[in-house]
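Supplementary notes for students who missed Thursday's class. We covered one full example, reproduced here. Read the sequence, then the structure, then the short commentary at the end.
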Amino acid sequence: MDVRRSPAPARAATATLIAFAAVLLVTLDGSAASGGRTLHKKTSGEIEALAFDGSRVAYDVGAGSGAKPRCNTVYVWNLRRNVTTRVSGRQTCGADSTSTGAGVRELALAGSRVAWIVNKGGNTESGDYLYVSTLAKPGERLLASAFRTGDVDLILTGNWLGGLVGAQSFLGVDHWATDAHGAVRSARLQSVGARLRDLADGAATMTARSTDGRQVAVLRADEAVSLYSTRGKLLRTVTPSAPTEVAVRGDYLAVLTTADTLEVYNSHSGRRLHTWHVANGARSLDVSSGLAAYAAPRAGGGYARVVHVLRLSNGKDRVLATTPPQLVAVRIEPAGLVYAVNRSGARGTGYLVFTPMSRLR
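Structure (token representation):
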């Protein structure tokens, strides 16, 4: 008689392995990116820009001042492996060398791709330079540039790059032009790939402030907030009360206002869900996993020094950390929260702190 083993145990074993792999994947993408530990990283100079996506943190370290300035450098910190990679090169090294330029003004991270905008300028001209790099092949590549002339304290005529955002596999940027009166005469929201590709045009596309890799939140000059798909489709527009910053993630669109409130919207319908009070002077807003993170001064104002975490569903706001001056930026992802702090001085230094999501709940 031919006896055959039932396939049921094999199927059960396969299902168990699949389930285990799924749990492992979720764990690696969550707070276990650092083994559930708080991580610290010191920098040789002051931190000028910060981005966070998945389990990676991108940051720019400025050249500083003095007789022997350092090289301005963009790095990516892999939290899972606790390894840091330099991704910028010679051109970004001199980002802080011009009289009126802002240096690395914006920085974005999307998976293993990094992008940043260097601003350089003098009294009668200003230029933006968009660089990109990958972790597989670190090294900057100039993708686009924009120039304008005039008076840097009054009106500049020409082209601009700004509104750099990134998440998951998407990087986006705004490209616009101003006329002799300083008015915007054209504007485009573009995706950043091997080249820039137009997604949408018009004044409503300025200026991108946040993306979750599927939606792009644009804070417009008329103080409305437009949500676009990453393919350029206008999804909806909301009209918050005097917004200062916006952040989008999944079901939530969060808006900081001049009234020291956080307005919370459903990102799919545009319906306002809540309005919560926040600390005076709130800034550096980000959202993830049902939480909003932001920086604020201590009572009485001044430099930002306090890291806040607010639950979007009930408005519960708690202080995660109080830092020395000055707190540069705060970013939050499903893996956890990162903030950057600078210690001022002739040879100023900085440091980064990562707190896993398990300690934010």
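Commentary. Residues 60 and 74 are 4 Å apart (CA to CA). The first helix runs from residue 8 to 29. If anything here is unclear, bring it to office hours.
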